[in-house]
User: Fold this.
Amino acid sequence: MSNTTPIITRVESFRDDEKEPQPEHTENVEPSNAKGRVKKYEDDAAEILRQAGPLEYTVEDDRRVLRKIDRWVLIPMFFTYTLVHLDKNALSYGAVFDLQKETHLVGAQYSWLSSSLYLVQLVFQPLAALALVRG
Assistant:
């Protein structure tokens, strides 16, 4: 059995007249191997946390981070997916009102026009996910 050390501890906020709460969550990460290198399944973040020592965060910290995520991730995602839906909806209305004939699209050009949105999303969705993880 390996020697593990707790590195993250979450505590609840409490008033002065209450007793101190017990940690709700403790994450254990195994220490580095003998040569000082991090084991394969660990990443740089685990090593930084190990060097920093025990971290405590409160429920207020959780709420603050959640609000920041909601503001900077969910709101832009909502507007982006709304625009995607409106664009696709406009293309379907265009098919009903002869957009293909009016814009002189021939063959499969109209199909490629409607598919281009999904092709762009296929290319940029992994990049957006990578930016969220790195950011």
